[in-house]
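Troubleshooting: if your tokenizer reports a length mismatch, compare your output against this known-good record of 343 residues.
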Amino acid sequence: MENNVTSAARRITATEVAERAGVSISTVSKALSGRGAVRHDTRQRILEAAAELGYRAPHTEAVPAAFFNGPTGAVGVIIEDQFGRLTVPVLQGVIELFAERDTALLLVDGRGDPIREAHYVESFVRRGVDGILVVGAGVYPREPLRGVSGVPVVYALSWSTAGEDVSVSVDDAEGARMAARHLVSTGRTRLAFISGPQRDTASIIRLASTEAVLAEAGAELVHEPLFGQWSERWGRQAVGQLLRSGAEFDGIVCGSDQIGRGVLEALREADVRVPHQVAVTGFDNWDVMVEASRPPLTTVDMSLNDVGSRAAQAILDAVERPIPAGVERVACQLVPRESTALD
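Known-good structure output:
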């Protein structure tokens, strides 16, 4: 009789358990094998469904003890830049959402080194984290983590080059379009563009967006794009080049707030009135830069806190179920200030 009951129980399939528990077959597999990240309440629901149906996983004599303890309630977070100006606000968004969801955060500094990151991945997996969140140092693509298996991964700020990965980043292109459209809307169409290194993804994206907006207005840059460093010093030097070139300009789009502040200083020293003669925009909304500028700098806020919270929510969702791959772009916000305001 016992053999008949056992035989009948073995005819129950994982599909039936998934239907009873209201989850996917892959989630049932993760839960019953103890090798996947599944939330505690979901595991319990699957256990109950399996017990009710008399299901026994093939080739499994016992469920690992860790299975009954549920997930760790912890997410491993790898950052590329420990003290990065962009990293910190993203992390704030992550921490706030994890606190709301009662999720612990294990933070390590990978320093952008693939070997170092792989070491931390192995450590996280060994500790049974529910997922791994990778926070980049800037708005650019990066290679995916090495050695990840069975644990969901989400990338924040810097996005993964692997199409099957999940990433959350800034809508840099639209942010740059906002700045350029703002200048055009105030009657400035003779624009110059000053940014950081030419090879940087941020410079490339922000230049393309600026040129696209000018093209819509039937205009183009009055001077070739000026590329240098992400610094105030470069902003001052670039304005010197513009003035010596003889180009007539009434607006300057800057690739960062640091550059923008240097631009404003150089224009003031050259007795060029801002915003009456020339309007200036920055990018980042870095408070110590924009508020200390004279006049205060119009800029684009990258919504970094939102990037962090959206990425944190994505990793928690990925623990529960498969989520769509690709890069989610978080909207930027234009912050007008006196550097573009007309009387």
